[in-house]
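Hi R.,

As promised, here are both runs. First protein below:
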Amino acid sequence: MSDKYIQTNVQGLVIDQSSGAVLNVDNGALDAYRRQKAVLESAKSTTQRIETLENDIGDIKNMLQQLLKR
């Protein structure tokens, strides 16, 4: 840790002496957060694709039923 930062009681947090800002210097936690966010976004995208496919299949089913009624 450089002289520019003051260690806090909370692990991974420091205070910048020049600005007084509290900074998170725990890069491992940041990487874990980014990985978790990517997984959640991927799951959301997959869910949206499945819902779109379900709607499309429903539309096709309705069109086939209309054709069979004729």
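And here is the second one, sequence first, then its structure tokens:
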Amino acid sequence: MDKVTLGKTGITVNKNGFGALPIQRVSVDEAVKILRKAYDGGITFFDTARFYTDSEVKLGEAFSHMRDKVYIASKTGAEKAEDFWKDLHTTLNNLKTDYLDLYQCHNIPFVPRPGDESGIYDAMLEAKEKGMIRHIGFTNHRLKVAREVIDSGLFETLQFPFSYLASDKDLDLVERCRKADMGFICMKALAGGLITNSKAAYAFLAQFENVLPIWGIQRESELDEFLSYVDNPPVMTDEIRDFIEKDKKELSGDFCRGCGYCMPCPEGIDIATAARMSLLLRRAPQAMNLTPAAREKMKLIENCRHCDACKKKCPYNLDTPALLAKNYEDYKHFL
């Protein structure tokens, strides 16, 4: 069983974390079933957020009776202390607990510091002193902000997208965290669904001793796949290495990671799906993306105002309107 320690937090868990964003899409009963099965299978780190609708509530239903057996991390997108406290109290109530193992700033565009106008960091310290949170972390999609977080020395963990499609700059972040004794929580380990070989994804991440991947799990079949790696963790082989190199060439260039920070669109375009449709059609079963309902959603691209709101909000600096147009033209060839 592979283990990872999240830096100076001392939190040591199996190298399979549970990303609880997708369980907002299933019923409470189904979510509780999946979450408890994950725990029974050896997963003890669960990551959620206020932003994930009822995800926190479902975690509370699953684990409130055994709170000391699991590590629960949540997030707040608050940019003012007043909103921070509101989010924290709501989260604790949802989770039916009086503390969080890790509380993270959720993709905010600046790094809170002691005594600044936002009051966020001071509020986090106060919450920590009161025992409401045990450790302080930060999540982001922007390299510049992520570097500032590490250099500040104020946070115990960084959550950032990381997979075998990572650039040298992403790899540098992991190494910076290791040197700073910061835990690195890896989101988007499957690149928003574009990576379809979980064995290769796991083997790549297993090479980094300070990295904890949190797999976004919605179905029991997906969970079973990762649970099989608890006792039999994949390791890097020449075969997997060759597969990764081939995959990286196929996915080179600009592509949408599906993070959703460009949403909502004023015309109702499902940008996170539409902007990567070409790749999804080639790497996943086509039927679900070619239904009449799916066609109507893609057709909304024709209504794009070119207001560039999505482009301005993209943490990867993609030309989103151009990407949508390109994917729509390609989509038509599949009809």
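A quick note on the second one: The two ends are 46 Å apart (CA to CA). Let me know what you think.

Best,
J.
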